[in-house]
Specification:
The protein has a single domain, classed as 5'-nuclease (Rossmann fold, 3-Layer(aba) Sandwich). By secondary structure, the protein is α/β, with parallel strands linked by helices. Strands 3-2-1-6-7-8 form a 6-stranded parallel β-sheet, sandwiched between helices. The two termini are 21 Å apart. The longest helix is centred in the N-terminal third of the chain and has 11 residues. It has 8 helices and 8 strands; from the N terminus they run E-H-H-E-H-E-E-E-H-E-H-E-H-E-H-H.
Length: 208
């Protein structure tokens, strides 16, 4: 991870993509540790976390996670999922946050030196190129250690730096038992992302 003292940093976390990458590597993210770790790398201006929410439930298991992150240093960007029936008559729940992330990153480009993107989604390649033209360095955090790898080759090539999530595990992994007052992130995320189609299977077009 190449960071310089005093540079202004912002984190852009694609919640479903980061969860899938960490799960593939066999560990859970401790979001307090993650924030603390990157706070030592420069002037952390903002940490965005993007996730869709299933709003038609009387109680959403993801809500405690969202609220905890909101109160503990993250800027939460959420929107309701959309339900539809596909051509085979199967019920689908869609929750893609790509546009929200892209808009925020473009807006923040004037105020930061370094964007750290937690996603392997190849659709972000053009976004990365656009903010690089504005003078922003971009680090992509994902993994090539999983099977299949979670990062698209074109995104990895476009980024100024690529950091494998496995190399950060010792600094940002969660203890087996959550601390007092902290929701069970793994359980909440597994419930949400098992229901919501975030088209991760279409994003892992990694080519060595």
């Amino acid at each position: 991870m190449r960071c310089y003292a005093g540079e202004k940093i912002a984190l852009f976390i694609d919640g479903s993509n980061l969860y899938a990458a960490a799960r593939a590597l066999g560990f859970d993210i401790d979001y307090k540790k993650l924030l603390d770790f990157f706070s030592t790398k420069g002037r952390l201006i903002r940490a965005f976390y993007y996730t869709a929410l299933v709003e038609d439930q009387e109680y959403s298991p993801i809500r405690p996670l969202v609220d905890w992150l909101d109160y503990n240093g993250y800027t939460m960007v959420t929107k309701p999922t959309k339900e539809f029936t596909d051509a085979m008559g199967r019920r689908k729940i869609k929750g893609n946050m790509d546009i929200e992330l892209a808009v925020d990153l473009m807006e923040m480009a004037e105020s930061i030196d370094h964007a750290i993107l937690f996603s392997g989604d190849g659709d972000f390649r053009s976004l990365v190129e656009a903010v690089q033209r504005k003078g922003v360095r971009v680090t992509v955090v994902s993994t090539v250690q999983s099977q299949p790898p979670m990062v698209a080759d074109e995104l990895r090539r476009q980024a100024d730096h690529f950091t494998d999530l496995s190399d950060l595990a010792q600094n940002i992994s969660r203890d087996p038992q959550p601390s007092k007052g902290e929701p069970d992130f793994s359980k909440a995320q597994s419930i949400l992302f098992s229901e919501v189609d975030t088209t991760l299977d279409e994003k892992t077009d990694y080519v060595p």
